[in-house]
Amino acid sequence: MTAYVLRRLAVAVVLVWILSVVTFAIYLKVPADPAGFLVDIQHATPAAIAKAHHQLGTDRPAVVQYGHYVWRALHGDLGISWATIGFAPNGTPSGAPVGHMVWSALLVTGSLALGGFVLLLLVAVPLGAFAATRPRSLVDRLSLGVSVAAISTHPLVVGLLLQLFVGNRWHLLPASGYCTVSRPSAAEIDAVRRFAPTNTPVPCGGVGHWAWHLVLPWITFALFFVALYMRIIRARMLEVLEEPWVRTARAKGASEFRVIRAHALRNAIAPVVTMTAMDAGMAIGIAMYIETVFGLPGLGRTTILALAGQQGYDLPVILAVTLVAATAIIILNLVADLLLLAVDPTVARRTGRGVLRSVGRAA
Q1: What letters, b where the CB count within 10 A reaches 16 and e where it falls short, cover 87-101?
Q2: Whole-model pTM above 0.90?
Q3: 3-class SS of residue 287
Q4: How far is 143 from 131, CA to CA, in rounded Å?
Q5: Using the 8-state DSSP alphabet, how is residue 80 labeled?
Q6: What is the tens place of the pLDDT at every residue in 329-339?
Q7: Distance separating alpha carbons of residues 171 and 149, to the nearest angstrom
């Protein structure tokens, strides 16, 4: 088991390194002149443009730039945002740190995706198990129809409909906005009231406000995936319920609820763990769409702002978002592999077999 865990860790590290190389290579090929953040490209002299490249460090060879970036990234420094760049009196570039910016956005996206997955499992697992105990019944067919309709609709459409009716028309839940888990200080609230433009929302915070503002995004997220997970649970449960040891448990007098909960469902949940890891990339992408609808300051809005600058693409931010999001996906796959190992310890003994190779594809 230890060898299996170490092997998965080594694969994760190699994948992160390969990802960094590929991402940086694409980053260097983006058709945008970073000197535009310091000078007017159309009117600046070649000498001024060259000086701007030197100040940004983009005039160095690609290998040197990559090595410098990796060294800083290993120390937690992802550079500064070109959109906020300035210079200290000694000529040193300064600006908003990309690491702090992306980390704050990742917490928002992560809270959206994690909460959405929890809600998804709370809905899909019971419905799938219940449908498996009553195949081809009205409940089974109705749940299938509703779930297929949900997965066939783009999250943007689902989010806009929920926002229109539940948020704006019925006022049951907040239609947009985000509250931090920590409560804002009295000074921050007073500063917004005194100096911010009219109609600027007052900062909010606390676990209750945070969760209340994320209910609609969580529902939108869960609706997109619930059909797939429910049908997988149903199909796997139908297989498990036909196993001899399930019939033995019933013959020994175990209640149906105990058979479902302690025997069938425990053995049917393993594919869900693997699927959760494989859907991590799609989950982050879906979360970015949902952030756009509900105005959440996550990775999606951070990327859009980095792409919409008048001076050009804020490449340090784009590079950091790509690396951080992809690294998070790799880590989630690793965690899912370890969870699958905890659910089914025989995975570690299947090295070289088809089951292990299929689990390995998650990374």
Answers
A1: eeeeeeeebbbbbeb
A2: no
A3: helix
A4: 8
A5: B
A6: 888 877 777 77
A7: 25
- Torsion (CA) 87, 91, 92, 97 in degrees, nearest 10: 0
Q: How far apart are CA 47 and CA 183, in angstroms?
A: 50
Question: What single-letter amino acid sits at 87?
Answer: F
Structure tokens at 244: 């001899």
The answer to whether 216 and 163 are in contact (CB under 8 A) is yes
Q: How far is CA 112 from the centre of its chain?
A: 8
The set of long-range contacts for 187-191, using a CB threshold of 8 Å and a minimum separation of 24, is none
| Coil/strand/helix, residue 295 | coil
Between vectors from CA 305 to CA 26 and to CA 27, what angle results, nearest 5°? 10
> Among all chains, which residue has been given the structure tokens 């693997």?
274
Q: Are 181 and 205 in contact (CB under 8 A)?
A: yes
Mean pLDDT score, 151-165? 89
Contact between residue 284 and residue 298 where contact means Cβ atoms under 8 Å apart: no
Question: What are the tokens at 308?
Answer: 């919409």
- Domains of the chain in start order, with CATH, are 17-98 (no CATH), 107-310 (1.10.3720)
For the stretch 281-334, pLDDT in tens is 788 888 888 998 999 999 988 988 888 766 678 888 988 998 888 888 888 877
Q: How do residues 32-55 score in pLDDT, each as one tens digit?
A: 788 888 888 888 889 988 988 888
Residue type, 246: V
Angle between the N-to-C axes of helices 98-133 and 207-240, in degrees from 0 to 180, rounded to the nearest 10: 40
d(CA 39, CA 43): 8
What would the mean pLDDT of 166-195 be, rounded to a whole number? 87
Band of residue 8 on the pLDDT scale cut at 50, 70, 90 = confident
Q: CA nearest 291: which of 223, 221, 240?
A: 221
**Letter for the amino acid at 346?**
T
Give the whole-angstrom CA distance, residue 281 versus residue 270: 19
